Amino acid sequence: MAAVAPGPAVAAADRLRITEIFLSLQGEARDAGWPTVFVRLTGCPLRCTYCDTAYAFHGGEWREIDAILAEVARHGVRHVCVTGGEPLAQKRCLALLSRLCDAGYRVSLETSGAIDIAGVDPRVSRVLDIKTPGSGELARNRWENLALLTPHDQVKFVLCGRTDYEWAREVLHRHALHARCEVLFSPSKSELAATELADWIVADRLPVRFQLQLHKLLWNDEPGR
Ligand code: SF4
Fold first, then answer.
1. Residue 141: CB within 6 Å of ligand 1?
2. Are 122 and 111 in contact (CB under 8 A)?
3. Are residues 98 and 19 in contact, defined by beta-carbon separation less than 8 angstroms?
4. What domains appear along the chain, each with residue ranges and CATH number?
5. What pLDDT is recorded for position 214?
6. Using an 8 Å Cβ cutoff, are 155 and 126 in contact?
7. Mind listing the pLDDT tens digit for each residue in 167-225?
8. What is the distance between the alpha carbons of residues 33 and 15, in angstroms, rounded to a whole number?
């Protein structure tokens, strides 16, 4: 019997819009330092003041999930980070995450915190932003997400100055975030000196992890690194 080609509806259901897939070092969060394949999905409904991936807002190309998995496999590493843009803005991201887990990868997801994370495969480590006043996107925080966090996840604040720091410190305590999962505080590169933030965290003995973006120290925002 002749093989039947999948109809357009089936094919469309398995596709995502992708800006880039590349191999680099993970520069942030718990898996910092590991060779990692990044799958960057196109599109984001937010416009943070410090965004360094505006090139992922538009464009990209439709890729079948099978083709994405094949390209990830070609790089031959164990860690995969699904990022954006805001990857959860594409509903099929959930299927991609599960397929990557099924294939045996250690999978992390970088998300803005503006979209429901309830449907994300529990094998995925979710790195959830909480948007500060300085980001310009404070109103987009989906606070209901916080109740869904587990020790497998991480929360990240990118801080633009002292006002953001004090706000984040208050949110940390009010929601007892450090009792739920690891909490990361990062300086916005062009707005807050790293040493200043480090000094504040130490002075307040905050139960958070200070982090710098390793890939920016190494390659200074070179595309695809
Ligand atoms: S959520 Fe991320 S990708 Fe979207 S605008 Fe903010 S920093 Fe950029």
1. no
2. no
3. no
4. 14-219 (3.20.20.70)
5. 84
6. no
7. 999 999 999 999 999 999 999 988 999 999 999 999 999 999 999 988 888 887 666 66
8. 30
